[in-house]
Design goal:
The chain has four helices and eleven strands. The strands form three sheets. Strands 1-4-5-9-11 form a five-stranded mixed beta sheet, sandwiched between helices. Strands 8-7-6-10 form a four-stranded mixed beta sheet, with no helix packed on it. The protein has a two-stranded antiparallel sheet with strand order 2-3.
Amino acid sequence: MNVWILAAAAAVVLLLLVFGLRRAAVHRRQRQAGKAGEERVEAILREWVRKRRGWQLVARDCRGPYSARCILLLPPGSPAPQELDHLLVGPAGVVAVETKNYGGTIQVLSDAVWRRSRGGGRARRTESPTAQVRRHASVLRALLPGVPVHSLICIANDGAVLRGRRRSDVPIVTAAELPAYLDRLARQKALAPRAVDAALQAIEAAKKRR
């Protein structure tokens, strides 16, 4: 009897171990994909800024809980830092780009809910990044009073199919569309050079470097 109990316990432990290893592998692939997407968008932004006078790209020199290269901001009075992917500062204000390296088909059902499917598999509902983007915008507005804050979501995966994106209050663009979107945004002239420099200094002062 004890032998059967021990065998059953060993089988349960083995199943839990296999499940844990598979889950860890999935999370590792997701982190790697996310990092690759962020690096691609960073390269696009760096090239865009290089050709645009008066615009600067905020350095991703912080180490956050989810990424070794990010922008981690802790404004005065805030209880916890917020991790941002990319920030641009220029005459139009500050631009926060949230990058997602999602593949497959992305259906925007509402501002809060997306449906995602890959490889003909079953479509699954998932939380939209909109709430995350809005948290970041709130932090930036608290940190930079009077400075226009523009937020957008960038899908870095070229193979992704976007549907229903007009249902999102936050603009959603692909990596290929990103430069043209920024060109349209850059037509706005809200900040003088001195104000741009002041915004950059405020962001640098609010960084939490680990």
